[in-house]
Amino acid sequence: MSGRGATMGAMGDGYDPGFLREALDLPGPDAPSVLLNYTHFSVRLMPARRLAAVTGVNIDGKSLVPLQRAGTWHYDVRVPQGLQTGPEVYQNNDLDRGHLVRRLDPVWGDDVTAATANQDTFSYPNAAPQAAEFNQGKELWAGLEDHVLNHASQYDARISVFTGPVLDANDLPYRGIQIPRKFWKIAAWTMDGRLAAAGFLLDQSPQLGPEELARDVRKRLLADEPPPLGPYRTFQVPIPHIAALTGMALTRLADADRFAAGVPEGTPGGAALVLTDLRQVRL
Description:
Layout: E1 6-8, E2 34-37, E3 41-46, E4 51-60, E5 95-99, H1 111-120, E6 127-131, H2 136-152, E7 158-165, E8 172-174, E9 177-179, E10 182-191, E11 194-203, H3 210-222, E12 233-237, H4 239-246, H5 251-255, E13 273-275
Parallel strand pairs: 1-2
Antiparallel strand pairs: 2-3, 3-4, 4-7, 5-6, 7-10, 8-9, 10-11, 11-12, 12-13
C-alpha cells in the first residue's frame, strides 16, 4: 500500500477517469489505502479506519437500468475481513449500512453488466454506518445525484460522483471502529466541454456538548449501544472546504466549482448553504 493507494486485483473496470469530456482522476487520501475496482465504480479503502476514504462512480444517465432493490451484503474477498467494517457493527442497533456509491448509480449498460454493478454496491467497503432515521435531510442527500444528472442531461447526461465519510480522529468509537459524523459528495459533469462541479456535506453529528457527549459515549460503550447521532442536515459547500476536511487534493474540482458562480463576494451564506429543497442547489 501507499499513500495514494495500492490496487487489489480487478473485480471490474472501476472508475473511468476519461468518462467525461474532460479527464478527471479519482481523488485519494494522503494515507495508506487500497484501491478496489468494481463495475463502473472504485473504492479507496483505508485499512486504518476499516472504511472507504473516497468512492468514485461514473453515471451514464442515458443507459441506466431501473433494477429493483435486491442484493446481498458481502465482504470483498480481495481484502482481509479484519480490514473491513462488516455485519457485526450493524447488528442489533439502529445503524444503517449506508451505501457510499448509491445502489442505482453504476447500474447501467447491458442487463448482465447492470446486474453485476448492482451486486457490487453491496460490498462492505462501499458501506459506512449512518443513522437510521430517514428524514428530509437524508432524502435530499439521496436525491442529489438525480438532481445534478437532470441538470447535466442537456449537455451529455453523464456525471461522475465522488463520495466519502469525513474520517476525523475524534469520530465516535463503537465496536472496534469509529463512526463518521459527516459525509461529503462532489458531483462533476461537463458544460460546453468544460468541467463543472458541486460539493455537498451531510452532517449527522450528535446534538450534545463535548463533555456530555464523552460521558454518554462511555455509558453506551459499556452497554454496547451505538453512540448518539443527530438529525441529518445537508449543505452545499465550497469544494475547498471538503478538501480541508478530508486532506485530499481536489484542486481541479475546486477550480470547476459552480457554488460561487455569480455570487458576489461576501454574500451571506456564501461559505455554506443549508439545503431544505433541491431547488436551492447552485449549479
